[in-house]
Design a protein that fits this description.
The protein contains two helices and no strands. With about 70 residues, it is an all-alpha fold. The longest helix is centred in the middle third of the chain and has 34 residues. The two termini are about 35 Å apart.
Amino acid sequence: MPSGVARSSYYAWEASEQARKVRERENLALVHETTVIHVASTKTHGVPRVTAELRRRGRLVVLSREVVDG
């Protein structure tokens, strides 16, 4: 633990770091699944159809305006 940092602040930061790593893994899995659906459709499915397919598979999908590189 760095000196000069409150113990509670350190543990809060550590917990948030772990949560960010989990979210990153989940995002990578979603990008892979999205790519698989798009390629399987011979690259004809766009966002609405891919989103519908993800939801049909039981994925909770919330569209945002965030740009995803990948």
